[in-house]
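Thread: "does anyone have the structure for this chain?"

Original post by V.I.:
We have the sequence but no experimental structure in hand. Need at least a predicted one for the grant figures.
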Amino acid sequence: MVGLPNIRTAVGRIVATTQNGLEVVRMGGLATGTEPAPFTVVETEKMFRLRRYFPDDPGEDAAHVIFIPPMMVSANVYDVTEQNGAVSVLHRHGIIPWVVDFGSPDHEEGGMERTLTDHVVAISRVVDFVRRVVGRDVHLGGYSQGGMFAYQTAAYRRSEGLASLITYGSPVDITAAMPLGMPANLVVPGVEFLGDRFFSNVWVPSWLARTGFQLADPVKTARSRIDFLRKLHDRDALLPREDQRRFIEQEGWVAWSGPAVAELLRQFVVHNRMMSGGFVIDGDVVSMNDITCPVLAFVGETDDIGQPVAVRGIGRAAPDADVYETPVPAGHFGLVVGSTAGRLSWPTTAEWILWNDGRGPKPEAMAPMDPTASTGSGISWTDRLTYGVGQVAGAGTAVSKEVIEAVSSIQRTTVAVASESVRTVPRLFRLGQIQPSTRISLAKLMSENERRTPHDELFLFEKRVLTHEQVNTRIDNVVAGLISCGIRPGEHIGVLMDTRPSALVVVAALSRLGAVAVILASGDDLPEMLKLSDTHSVITDPTHLEVAAAVTDRVLVLGGGSGDSRVIERADGEHVVDMEQIDPDEVPMPVWYRRDPGLAGDLAFILFTKTQGRVAKWSITNHRFAMSAFGAAAAAGLSNRDTVYCLPPLHHASGLLTTLGATVAGRSRIALSNGVDPETFAFEVRHYGVTVVSYTWSMLADVFRGERFDPAQLSTVRLFMGSGLSTGLWSEIDEVLPNARVLEFFATADGSTILANVDGNKVGSMGRALPETNSVRIAAYDPDTEQLRVDATSGFIREAAPNEVGMLVAHAAQRFGSNGLVLRDVFRSHDRWEVTGSLFRADADGDLWFVGSAQTVIRTAHGVVYPVPIQQALSKVAAVDHAAAYGVGAPGTQVSVAVVSLRPEAASVTPTTLRVGLGSLPSDERPDLIWVTDEMPRSESFRVITSKFVAAGIPKPGPRVWYRDGVGRYRRYTASAAKTIDWSSPTPHAAARALE
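Reply from O.Q.:
Generated one for you, tokens below.
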């Protein structure tokens, strides 16, 4: 009858639904009749079982590929379905697949204690094993986090033994596009907390891993379950996808090891070190730059977990590799399981392997990767709307994510300011609370860091990594050695060492003992330094042993390898002591020893400055050190996410105070080098994952002006910090690295204050005093009488007007630690100000500009000339490499001379170019003479040395020497012109002008 339901059909559906439902309840799913691909376990270790699929196929001339599963997914992910599974498809193309099976950690001995390093090292052993078996290089692949393992293993091995890498939805630049479109600046702090406080102590069960994955796309999960229930009566319709459904919903998940997850979160999410480099595997520093084999990355066009922009990060992270990509119209799981994977992912993988082995054509579905192709998350609106069957629910989810991302971007600035305040305010608050009796020192800061994060990395040097715990153990051992050598608290001990881990350990050990570290520089002034500092014992490395032994009778040798790896032939146990031979466990600690005893008012370090050939001692108390360390760390925004490239020598204030001090105060990693080498600079920056580069003077000039310099290699650097940078080089850095900024510090010679140009907007300015450090003012100053100018009305010292050159004075708030002259009743009654000896001018905004020290002022017959503005102006001339200004003759009739060296590509410089470069200076403040030298001598800290030029006197006439005429133009300094110029006259060029 028309309109009545077919009772027989309806009953049949009900019965079929009941039968299939009971089977699902009892068996967990429908029996599909399919069998997994055959394999045999060929190697078993505590960490893994290695499967070799299709053991009956000898594969003598076949290509071989090793697949790595993610930590939370079963190794069966590569054999989910018979027709579309990875191992079956590849074998049909003549390729032998191998799969690493980590098992389920909660059922493996020691599985819950596995670390990320354990996984990577185990995979590396698998590569070696398979290579030995097959006798050739192998391909290495991985899905999702397994692909991250593949990248990390390739970097760890420096690509040795790998024919290529293949990854599927494996993110590299993780913070560029967090899973589900969540904003990184909100997620990372929470992830850091979870990694440090939660996952280090717990593990993630398999059911939680499964639930988390399903919640990543709840709409799709619900839709698939509803579809399954609607078709439960139709067994034939369900069977093709049944294996896949059972894998996703039940069988495909394993537990996560807590320590491995914690390390993954810390290194590759919080610090994003797959992009920046400098991650640590088995004690080695590793960078993705070490990957040189070809790479094929499969990109899910609608993947919200391994988002396209994050996956394409491999193109930037591994610049020396040939990187290709294959876009796949699928989500995260669809990359490797299902019909799309069987149709596109695995056939393309097979073609890629055969092409790389020279056995087939280039795959049509792949193309060279463009790392800049993705913006935002990398998932387009079109892909989102057409994904699956285009249900409104799916589209609505996508819209919601984009709206959330838009809102978060609006709030990004506010969040950044707030997070910066969280890091900065406690440091400044602590700095403001320091009193003379406060216990604070370099060693105490390092002890605090060890208690907080004992297993975090501290020193990176060559391929070695030392944690806070290891460094502090080494410091304690050196302290024991010092005590055995008779060193006591308060004693002045010289340190003459290269900037290596051993040198930093020695300085910290002296601080821990309570002795004073006298930081020395090799050279002719070494005997004078020892005399000024009352130092009778010197700690040195084997490199400087001969130098140290020549100036003192007591030399302690440390570093240069373990005691078993080098022999100090001069060691006699009395005059020369090899401290590496001392067993710290055998040294009895005296009753007077107290760990980290230093008080704020105690003397901690002695540095040296040299002005016009005179060496002066610079005493630094623990308070001065803390003031510099905390202030610099706050200005630089340093945190445990930073890796600071420590290049300045320790005997320079920038090396000790604003690099070592700030890095320790900021709990950042310290990357050390054997020196500044333009050939290795970029490699080490990428290798260590450097985010902050420290410098002194012209240290960076050779790097940025080298023939092979590529600014793209420094993309991870966010900050350059140091002192003495010329305005010319500063401008070049701003131009080629617009995403990085320069933080220029200025420390007065007596250490009374620290200035910093924090925002970097005014190139060449020294900025202002760091917060919570001594405030500064500019007192009016007469350079002729070398006296401060007194206000005739009040009787106090007059403060300099804007743009008036005056003497910088620092407020002497503390009554301890003053090195220079302290005056009272300066600007008002009962105030105390320390005279720094440095001359500055303040612009209308209050920013300070250094013009020179009181000792370097050039006093000519036509007036006072300041050297620094001349040097800065000439440094901006395109052809000039280095510039210096100095005075020749007696004060009052001195000749102001500027000397420049030219860049290699510059054949010459013209007088017009020099005049234009100096155009911002009044005519009388420009140099009287300018000449070109072929070589500009520089010190160990890369400061230009002019002492030899001063001793040589006025430059001789020649084709590369010019003099300034009366109207400020520069003319050739000839022999006839030299005879007519009277340098003692206020108008020395009058006769020369008449001659013309």
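V.I.: this helps a lot. The first strand starts at residue 39 and ends at 44.
O.Q.: and Residues 392-432 form the longest helix (41 residues).
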